[in-house]
Amino acid sequence: MDMNMVELLGYAASIMVAISLTMKDIVKLRVLNFIGCGLFTAYGLAIDSMPVVITNGFIACVNVYFLVKMQQEKRIVSSNA
């Protein structure tokens, strides 16, 4: 099987998203999913597919938003303790 770099990028993105969905820890899930979405965004750019780029770019932003929100909440809780 002859795979080029673009195909490998797509497979790597798929594997990262799949692994992220096995995580019990929500932070690990979001971090791995963010990485997978970033790879999928790069893959979408490489294959010139704007639906892939827009969807995964949006999901990556959602992951960052919730990671930042969780970090801020953790700081608030630890400063009140």
UniProtKB/TrEMBL annotation:
Pfam families: Imp-YgjV
Keywords: Membrane, Transmembrane, Transmembrane helix
TM ranges: 40-68
Record-given protein name: Inner membrane protein
The species this protein was found in: Vibrio hangzhouensis
Lineage: Bacteria, Pseudomonadati, Pseudomonadota, Gammaproteobacteria, Vibrionales
